[in-house]
Amino acid sequence: MTRTKLKEAALRLFGQKGYDGTALSEIAKEVGVKTPAIYAFFESKEDLFMTVFEESMSAYNEYIQAMAETSKGMSTEKKLHALLLRQYDFHRDKRELAVFAFRYLIFPPDFLQDRMHEAFGRFDTLLSSIIGEIMQEGLDRGELAVIPMETLVDSYLTLMDGLGMQYYYYKSPELFERKLKHAFEMFWRSVKA
Questions:
Q1: Residues 7 and 54 grouped into a single domain
Q2: Which one-letter DSSP state was computed for residue 144?
Q3: Tens digit of pLDDT for each residue in 3-55?
Q4: Whole-model pTM?
Q5: How far is CA 184 from CA 77, 78, 82, 124, 133, in A?
Q6: What is the dihedral of CA 17, 104, 184, 143, to 10 degrees?
Q7: How many domains does the chain have?
Q8: Which of 26, 57, 99, 187 could anchor a disulfide with 123, C-beta 3.0 to 4.6 Å?
Q9: Residues 161, 189, 135, 178, CA torsion sign
Q10: Exposed, middle or buried by CB within 10 Å (0-12, 13-18, 19+), for 103?
Q11: In this structure, are 67 and 109 located in the same domain?
Q12: Three-class secondary structure of residue 126 per DSSP
C-alpha cells in the first residue's frame, strides 16, 4: 500500500516539478511517511523514478494492446484509426501517466538518459510488434499497398508520436480531433491498396 502511494506521489510530483525539482522529502510528506521510509521500498530517488517511468510506459503499452486484442474482425483501416483514438483516450483518461512519460521521453535527466533510452527501446519494440501484426494482417488481406513492413510501422509510429505531441498543443478537443482525423486520412490514403 505504501509502495503504491509512493509511486503515485512520485508520478505526480516528478511530472509537475521535474526530477531535479522533486525532493524525496516532498514525496514522503505527500504520502504521510518520513523520508527514510522510502528506502524500505526503493534503493534511491533514481530507483523510484525509473520504477515509475517503466510502469508508465508499461501502462501505455497495455492500454494500447487491449485495443489491439479487442479489434478482431475489424478492417485494417478501422484498427489503425482505433489505435490512434485509443492513444487519445490514454492522454485524456490517464493524464498523469501520459504527462510523466511524455515529459521524460523528450527531456530525460541527463544522467538517466542511457537507462531511459534502453527502457524505451524495450517498450518501443513491443509497440512496434503490435502495429506490425496489424500491418501484416492488412497486407495478407490485400488492404494495404505492398510496402516494406519497416516503412509501414515506422511511418505509423511517427504519426502516433506527432499526434501525441499535438494533443498538448491544442486545448480544444474539437480542433485536436479534426487534426487526428485529417492526419489519419492522409496516412491511410498513402498506404491503402
A1: no
A2: B
A3: 999 999 999 999 999 999 999 999 999 999 999 999 999 999 999 999 999 99
A4: 0.85
A5: 9, 11, 10, 21, 19
A6: -150
A7: 2
A8: 57
A9: positive
A10: middle
A11: yes
A12: helix
Question: Do both 77 and 166 map to the same domain?
Answer: yes
Q: pLDDT tens digits, residue range 63-122?
A: 888 887 788 889 999 999 999 999 999 888 988 888 888 888 888 888 888 888 888 888
Q: Based on the domain organization, do 36 and 60 belong to the same domain? A: no
Q: Tell me, what's the pLDDT at 71?
A: 82
Q: Locate 27 and state its grid cell.
A: 514525496
Domain that holds residue 19: 1-42
CA distances from 35 to 14, 25, 29, 32, 142 (A): 16, 5, 8, 9, 59
Q: What angle do CA 59, 62, 65 make, to 5 degrees?
A: 150
Q: State phi, psi for 41 to the nearest 5 degrees.
A: -115, -30
Nearest to 68 by CA among 139, 136, 140: 136
